[in-house]
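seq as requested:
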Amino acid sequence: MGDPYVGLRRVEQVVKRTNALGADLIVLLGDYVAGHCFITHPVEFKDVAQIPPQLTAPQGAFSILRNNDWWDDLFV
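struct tokens:
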């Protein structure tokens, strides 16, 4: 996540649209933190962490962490 492509507002839109689909199961596949040169403004994980729990599905919503998500001890 990070501006200009996936800012906080964009994450909120994705959650809203995903819930509108009425999926039975939601799986987020990791690498949420972007650290490449195309990011003009990083999105602080603490700011975005409140949004994905708003995902709803009868069978649940699950998140898989990948290497970029562990580098800064974001989930400790």
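The radius of gyration is 13 Å.
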